[in-house]
Amino acid sequence: MASLYDTLGVAKNASPDEIKKAYRKLARELHPDRNPGNAEAEEKFKSVQSAYDVLSDPEKRKQYDAFGNGRPGGGPGPGGFDFDFGNVDLGDIFGGIFSRGRGGGQARRPAAEKGADVEAVVNVSFEDSLRGVQTQIPVELVTACSECGGSGAQPGTAPVICPECNGRGVKAESQGLFSLSQPCPRCRGNGTVIEKPCPQCNGSGRERRTKRYSVRIPEGVKDGTRIRLAGKGEAGLRGGPAGDLYVVTRVATSPVFQRRGPADLEVEVPVTYAEAALGSSVDVPSPYGGRLSLKVPAGSETGKLLRLKGHGAPRLKGSGKGDLIARLRLTVPKKLSKKQKQLLEEYARATQEAPREEVFG
Ligand SMILES: [Zn+2]
Ligand SMILES: [Zn+2]
Q: From the CA of 155, how far away is ligand 1's center (Å)?
C-alpha cells in the first residue's frame, strides 16, 4: 500500500511547505473539470485530499509516522488509520479550492460589508451660503492601504488559500457520529491567509489617512444642512462598497439678515414716524449686495412685516428664491433740528385737539 507521502509525491521528511505545494499542484491537476468522466482521476483526487488532511496536521502526521497506515498495535483492518474519508464532499472541496459553488458546499465566507459613513463639518460664510461655494474639505478616513491596495499582503505576494480549511472558512470536526462545522481558527473564516503581511498596514489592508475632497456647497445651504457624497466614505470590507461622506455646513450668522423658514430671510428696517404714518418708499439692503426699494404703506406700525418676493435665500429643493421679509422698526430721533422741533410741537397740538379714542382704545 502506497504511503501518504507517496500519494503526494514527497519525501518522508518533507517540510509542511513542500507538502502544501505538492498538494496544491496535484489538486489542480486532478480536478474533475480537467478530467471529465475520469473516475481514476477522481479517486486519485480523493486520496490526495486524504493524504493532505493527515500530513498537513502536525498532530495527525506524528501519529501517522508513529503507527503507519494501521491502528496502533492492530492489524490492517478496513479503515486502517482512524480517519474517515468516506463522506468527503467533493463539492465542498472544489468549492473551497476553486471558489466555485457546487451545491452542497457549506462554505460561508463573511459577506462583503459597506464601509462606514463619515461626517465632516465645513464652515461657510453667510454670503457663500447664498451664492454657493467650491471648497476643500479634509476628511480623516480609513481607506484601502495604498501599499497593498487593500489585500493586506505584502506587495508582490497575494493571500493564499487557507491550508487549514482549504478555503472553506469552516472546519468540520468529527465527534463520533457527528461532524461539527466551526469557523476555521487559522483564517478566522476568511478562507485565505496572508503569509507575508503588508508592512505598511500590518496585514489589515486598511490605513487611516486624511483625504482632501473638493466639494461644491450648493447655494441656499443653512446651518446644519447635510450634503451626501455617495461613495466618499470609508473603504468597504472584503470588496464591499465604500460608505458615504456627509458634509455638514456650519453657516456663519449675518449681522443684518436672519434665516426664516425654508428659504426666507428677515431684515430689520428702521422707519421714521412720518414714513410709517404717511407711507413712503425706503431703502432696504439686499442680501446679494446693493439696495432694494420697499414701499411702506401709510399707517404702518412698528413690527409690521412686509415681503419683498424672490429676494430671500435660494431654495435648496426646487428652484427660485424665498422672500426677503422687512420688519419695520419705528425710530425716535434723539436730536431734532429747530425746524423739526417746531413741526413736532405743531403736530402735538393738533393731536391733542383730535379725538383720543384711537390712543386709549
Ligand atoms: Zn497594506
Ligand atoms: Zn481556514
A: 8
Q: Give the distance (Å) from ligand 2 centre to CA of residue 119.
A: 36
Report the residue count for the chain.
361
**Mind listing the pLDDT tens digit for each residue in 115-140?**
889 999 999 999 999 999 999 998 88
Q: What is the pLDDT of residues 273-288, one digit of tens each?
A: 999 999 999 999 999 9
What integer pLDDT is reported at residue 3 of this predicted model? 83
Q: Is residue 10 a contact partner of residue 18, using CB atoms and an 8 Å limit?
A: yes
- Using the Cα atoms of residue 192, residue 197, residue 198 and residue 201 in order, give the sign of their dihedral: positive
Ligand 1 center–CA 35 separation, angstroms: 39
How far apart CA 319 and CA 182 sit, in angstroms, is 58
Cα(21) to centroid of ligand 1, in Å? Answer: 25
Determine the pLDDT at residue 130: 96
C-alpha 193 – ligand 2 centre gap (Å): 7
Distance CA 46, CA 40 (A): 10
Least distant ligand from the CA of 189: 2
pLDDT in the model for residue 141: 81
* pTM over 0.85, yes/no: no
- Judged against a pLDDT cut of 50, whether residue 1 lies above it is answered with yes
Q: What is the pLDDT of residue 251?
A: 95
Distance 136 CA to ligand 1 centre (A): 27
Distance 236 CA to ligand 2 centre (A): 22
